[in-house]
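Researcher: Here's a chain I'd like modeled. Treat it as a single chain, no partners, no ligands.
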Amino acid sequence: MKKSERKKKRREAGNKKALAKATKDYKNKGKKKIYIEPREKNKIKFKKKRDDFKFKLHKKIATKNAGRLRRNQTKHEDIFRELLLKHHFKFNIQRAMYAKDACYIVDFYLYRKFNRDLVVELDGDSHNSAKAKAHDAKRTKFLEERKKLVVIRYKNEEVITRPEEIIEELKIKYKCTRYA
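Model: Modeled as a single isolated chain. Structure tokens:
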């Protein structure tokens, strides 16, 4: 008998023992187990590992992109950041928000103690196209429904023309108090 034949017989015997053990265990519980081939089990494990890897990869990329965006802020984002600092809001700039199937980076994330947190998005000229508006709507829906956040959008021009009104709006209308 060749070595490969002996290995094959041992493998088959091992599969039979595993099947017998599985059915015996489930007979004791009054349930029948559907036998899954070892190859199928590996496929299921591999799919879970692959999905986890994809999520970790997306998370890592989003975190790097958020850091890059933090270092290269636009003029309007810089002005708005100075306003928030001046009025003592607690906030994060360019924060990545994750879920298993989506990953978005928000411009400003404001903390609030007792209410839902706020996300402030500053929209430039690139947000005027139909495709960008659809993407913004999808993103807003994700943030509001899945992350339970309040999303507020301002145009870049508004930050320059009426900065104090925006701050008052954040304080009063959205009940975002100082020293959150």
